[in-house]
Amino acid sequence: MRALRIPHPGTLHLAEVAEPVAGPGEEIFRPQLVGLCGTDLDLIDGLVDPAFVRYPLTLGHEWVGLDPAGRTVVTEGLIPCGTCVRCAEGRENLCATYAELGFTRDGAAASAVAVPRSLAHEIAPGIDPLAAVIAEPASVVYRAMERAIPAPGARILVIGDGTIGLLAAALARVWDPERVDLRGLRTEQAILAEHAGVDRFLTRRAAKGYDLVIEASGSPAGVAAAIAATRRGGTLALLGYLGRDVRFPLDVDALINADLTVLGSFASTSASWRSVVELINAGTLDAGWLVTHRFALTDYVAAVDALRHPGGARGKIVLEIPQG
């Protein structure tokens, strides 16, 4: 079969590889759409912490496809052991034996992928696969929101106008906030922010006094703006990676004096996946609008270029995997 492979950092190509063989408890799924994100660029460039990647690998941790019975499904990306203390707590994202599709195991940018059946979630008939392909990043965001627990009527600010930031703005409505604002860098993203349902899309204006600030830009300037925007006694949730070698100086005294809660949120859990799939199947989370670019698998070079060099309104970039 064909698979989009990274043999080693700095190299990406479409290769002919053997079809996967299902292990114990696994099934073979047929991907239809595979989303690409900034972390995929880091995987290509060799910038991901070595503890979280194994080369060579097949890309693809965000996807929707078909199970052996022909039903539309999404599957969780993390492959938990199911027996360690963290798994027993429902915190599979902190499993003692880290494994993840598209990172340490071959991902879904291929004709077929092997995944434990227990990690599959069925998508309801009639739901557009474009609305389901965002299940993985949405589950990551949902996990962070669950940790932050914004109270009804909260004022929420999202910093970052990429996929994670836009999904954070859209999902924040589940918690019944007073308002949700989004601060980005590119005015072209305003139309996507409108689809996300934000009250205000900010580019240069300073923002302050928010109960919850979600930092999704992955930049030192974004973190500084997030700290400044969080009210005293508020919560700051960090979702954007700065880069493995980037350090950010913290004014610890200011954090203490402001009585801030600062939390990081890594990946997703089975519970956050169930919640997101329920929202998708109910039509409550219909983020098909987020997919702005679609490429054939054979056009992966153009897809990666669009990911590296955004132009115009750019949301999720997906690869279409040929069937048969």
Structural class of the secondary structure composition?
alpha/beta
Radius of gyration, in Å, reads 19 Å
Oligomer: single chain
Q: Sheet bearing the most strands, described?
A: 7 strands, mixed
Tell the overall outline: globular
Question: Total number of β-strand segments?
Answer: 16
Could you list the spans in which at least 5 consecutive residues all have pLDDT below 50? none
Describe what you observe in this structure.
The protein is an alpha/beta fold. It is built from ten helices and 16 strands. It has helices spanning 38-45, 85-88, 129-132, 135-148, 163-171, 190-196, 220-229, 252-257, 270-282, 300-308; strands spanning 2-6, 13-16, 26-36, 57-58, 62-66, 72-75, 113-116, 120-122, 155-159, 179-183, 200-202, 210-215, 230-238, 261-264, 291-296, 316-320. The N and C termini lie close together (10 Å).
